[in-house]
Design goal:
This protein is an alpha/beta fold. The chain has three domains: 32-39 and 168-280, 3-Layer(aba) Sandwich (Rossmann fold); 51-165, no CATH class; 288-472, no CATH class. It is 46% helix and 12% strand. The protein has a seven-stranded mixed sheet with strand order 5-4-3-6-7-9-8. A hairpin with a 5-residue loop joins strand 10 and strand 11. Helix 1 (51-66) runs antiparallel to helix 2 (74-90) and helix 2 crosses helix 3 (102-127). The radius of gyration is 28 Å and the shape is flat. It starts with 29 loop residues before the first strand and ends in a 5-residue tail after the last helix. The relative contact order is 0.13.
């Protein structure tokens, strides 16, 4: 499960030297020359999510009242509404779209209404066969509710689109000035997107025509307050502006990642002014309580179950390799915070500098047979269950690295620092795809960030199961 293997730095040599071997996520106040002063937060106008559930509930009630077989049966109406609202919420049909359109969601809405009616009919037939709903009632109910729901949703979306055109959201465009000016001009030409750029944020002052280029945190703060900025369009590398984006996100702005160079059909997500866009989040993944609960339950259970194994490993290691069974090393965790990682000691570095700066020591010829066994079976990683139990790590997440290498890789590989948005883990999406040991750091960044962007509790369970299967047939750490 470890990411460490051989001596050379993986994926080629990153840019050498010239950086400080300390924690890597810059302080929240400073980012690439920007200093974002604390001050009043912007008041963001957010579209209410209430009208759409009300429309769907009203459509269901209308269909129940219009059909003879469902009239006067409030329990059936309640079950139908609960099924429809639950299915729609599960499919994110109540999430506010950037540019809402009823035709885009028509198939999903109608399909879930049909499923809800079929579930209701099956439940009635199973409970009271004599009162089973007829096929005619099912068909009419689906048609009536679908028509009413789509008409109501169309009205809600029409009002929202009018509001977007009449009162567009002020936005900042963050990225290289040339690309940002081009994206801003496209948004200004298409007011129906509901976004009106008011400034460009870049480290270098821009020249020529176009929107003003903001180069300091004070200028960004002034534009934020004076223009009532509520959205941020990010072009280029997000990692270059991570602390500034976090500050803007925490001030209430909606963050959009805009693909300014690829055709919009090359990327999933929403479209604004013809660009493929994806909403960004500065917070951790939703469901973090469930993830933490899974970590505590699984790590606690494994510590109890593996207690005898840990004791045997510690005793054998003490007898074969002398004192100093537990290896402690500083690693970088969530939001760039350091913590002490625990492992069984399988190698003794010459000094603290070697331990902090040498990429790896696996497969060294001086290792004892038992230490090589611990490495090969990943049993040396079992002590990290304590890190998980106490909250320093998670069972699943990007692998933690030492401060020296985090600083090095953050400069050399786009997106490396963004891995620290989530608590680091014992295993992860990169590891189950073979990215362990002397493998590409760039590939690891891509897999780790994809895991965070698409996090779900089920994905964590799948990764844990695949990791357990890999441990049955170990191929080395």
């Amino acid at each position: 499960m470890t990411a460490e293997s051989t001596v050379p730095s993986p994926g080629g040599q990153p840019r050498e030297h010239g950086f400080s071997p300390v924690s890597v996520i810059p302080p929240r106040e400073a980012a690439d020359g920007f200093r974002f002063p604390a001050g009043r937060r912007t008041s963001v106008r957010r579209a209410s999510r209430l009208p759409l559930p009300l429309v769907d509930a009203g459509a269901g009630l209308l269909a129940c009242l219009a059909l003879a077989e469902t009239q006067g049966r409030p329990l059936l109406a309640g079950l139908l509404l609960a099924a429809v609202l639950g299915l729609n919420a599960r499919a994110s049909l109540y999430r506010t779209a950037a540019v809402p359109a009823v035709l885009d969601e028509l198939p999903a809405v109608c399909a879930r209404i049909a499923v809800a009616w079929c579930l209701l009919a099956a439940l009635v037939a199973a409970h009271s066969p004599g009162h089973a709903l007829s096929a005619r009632t099912l068909a009419l109910g689906c048609v009536l509710q679908s028509a009413a729901s789509c008409l109501g949703r169309g009205a809600v979306h029409w009002r929202r689109r009018r509001a977007l055109v009449r009162r567009p959201v002020a936005a900042l465009v963050i990225g290289p000035a040339g690309t940002a000016q081009r994206v801003a001009a496209a948004f200004l030409r298409h007011p129906w997107s509901g976004v009106r750029p008011v400034g460009i944020v870049d480290r270098q002052p821009g020249g020529g025509e176009g929107l003003p280029v903001l180069t300091t945190g004070e200028e960004v703060q002034r534009a934020l307050i004076q223009n009532g900025v509520q959205a941020v369009l990010v072009v280029g590398r997000r990692a270059d502006h991570a602390p500034l984006l976090r500050a803007l996100g925490e001030s209430g702005c909606v963050l959009w990642d805009v693909d300014a160079d690829s055709p919009s059909y090359d990327m999933r997500g929403e479209r604004l002014a013809g660009f493929a866009c994806r909403r960004l989040s500065v917070a951790g993944p939703r469901g973090s309580v469930g993830k933490r609960l899974l970590d505590v339950l699984v790590s606690g259970s494994l510590l109890l179950a593996a207690g005898p194994v840990l004791l045997v490993c510690a005793v054998v290691l003490r007898l074969t390799d002398g004192p100093g069974v537990v290896f402690r090393q500083e690693r970088i965790g969530k939001d760039g915070r350091p913590f002490t990682l625990l492992k069984f000691r399988t190698h003794r570095p010459v000094d603290a500098h070697e331990a902090a700066t040498r990429w790896s020591v696996a497969n060294e010829h001086e290792m004892s047979p038992f230490c090589r066994f611990l490495r090969r079976t990943s049993l040396d990683e079992l002590l990290q269950l304590w890190n998980v139990f106490w909250g320093d790590m998670s069972l699943v997440g990007p692998r933690p690295e030492r401060p020296y290498f985090v600083g090095k890789f953050s400069q050399a590989y786009p997106g490396y620092a963004a891995r620290h948005r989530m608590r680091t883990g014992i295993t992860g999406l990169a590891q189950i795809h073979g990215l362990r040991g002397d493998t590409s750091i760039e590939d690891r960044c891509r897999f780790d960030n994809a895991y965070i962007d698409n996090w779900s509790l089920w994905q964590d369970i799948c990764i844990l199961l695949r990791t357990a299967a890999a441990l049955v047939r170990p191929t080395g750490s």
